[in-house]
Amino acid sequence: MNQDIKTETSAQWRRGVLEMCVLRLLSAAPDYGYEIVVRLSRLGALAAGENTVYPILRRLKKDGVVTTFQQASPAGPPRQYYKLTDAGMDRLATLKSEWRNLALAVDACLEDGDSHE
Amino acid sequence: MSNTDSKIEAYLANFRKALGAFAYDDREGLTSDVREHIEEAAASGQPVSQVLRALGPAHKLAKAYAIELELSSSGEQESGWFAKGARIFGYLAVGSILTLTIGVALASFGFALTLSGMALLVIGMTEAVGVHMPGVQMNGVAPGYVILAAPFVFVLGGLSLWGLYGYCHWLIRELRNLIPARPVA
């Protein structure tokens, strides 16, 4: 039961920051879906299932913060690459700022709680 | 089709079916995304069964897309249906006159010009070899000019028919986009 709660809570946290991390990865260079999933999985705690990353990429495209283009693959069919738009850069900057403020506040809260224990 | 291919196709068919609430273009686009992922993962050496397991059940993946794209709310579905119904009515009411005009014009030009082009070629060639077809009056026009004109007339007719095909294709796609197959489970 506790394990279920822990897993669900972690999943919710991850889900909340995943959009920002996907935008950050794409701010360096355009990338395709599978590679984004693999790069996130290398980041340990940020590893998210394909069934989370692809819907997020779709929503980002719908929101106009990323665009897509086709590029030939060394083997197999052409790949769909995702590229950040100007609106995407703005959203990333906003999310980073909000995240840093939130992280500072959460850290302060946790440290305060620790000093009372 | 190999056993692996049939597993992939079955998964994608279930996924496409579960995307019923999405417009046709979206269903095809999302299915294409998932297909690309499966092919990339398989090409990198992962067994297909493992790739499909990681994606999860097709209906859950479809639901994840629906939630992410804010299509899961039943209220929105109902208002969406009403709005779509109104749009279809509007399309039919306004589009029918346009469709009638464009369809009749392009079909008339298309068939008339392609057939005329072929007829001109046959007439020009028969006149050129000295065979006079009954009922054909050249009025002093050299058979060579008739043969030269034939391809242009034929191509004009072909372009009209191609335009008609394109218009019908667009119309069908628009109507498909307006009519979702069924709500997400």
What would your notes on this structure say?
By secondary structure, chain A is mainly alpha-helical. Helices cover 69% and strands 12% of the residues of chain A. Chain A is built from four helices and three strands, in the order H-E-H-H-E-E-H. Chain A has helices at 2-28, 33-41, 50-63, 86-116, and strands at residues 31-32, 66-71, 79-84. In chain A, strands 1-3-2 form a three-stranded antiparallel sheet. In chain A, a hairpin with a 7-residue loop joins strand 2 and strand 3 (79-84). Chain A is elongated and about 60 Å long. Chain B is an all-alpha fold and 185 residues long. Chain B folds into two domains: 3-72, no CATH class; 90-178. Chain B has six helices and no strands. Chain B has helices at residues 3-18, 24-43, 48-55, 58-68, 74-128, 143-178. The longest helix of chain B is centred in the middle third of the chain and has 55 residues, at 74-128. The radius of gyration of chain B is 27 Å and the shape is elongated. Mean pLDDT of chain B is 82; it is low at 71-78.
State the order of secondary-structure elements of chain A, H for helix, E for strand.
HEHHEEH
Output the number of helix runs of chain B.
6
Distance between the termini of chain B: 29 Å
What class, by secondary structure content of chain A?
mainly alpha
Biggest beta sheet attributes of chain B: none
- Average of the residue pLDDT scores of chain B: 82
Q: Largest interface: which pair?
A: A-B, 20 and 21 residues
End-to-end gap of chain A: 26 Å
Output the number of helix runs of chain A. 4
Q: Radius of gyration of chain B in whole Å, from Cα?
A: 27 Å
Q: Approximately how much beta-strand content do the residues of chain B carry? A: under 5%
Number of strands of chain B: 0
Strand order, sheet with most strands of chain A: 1-3-2
Order of helices and strands of chain B: HHHHHH
- Quaternary organization: heterodimer
Helix proportion range of chain B = over 70%
- Proportion of residues in extended strands of chain A: 5-15%
Low-confidence stretches of chain A: none
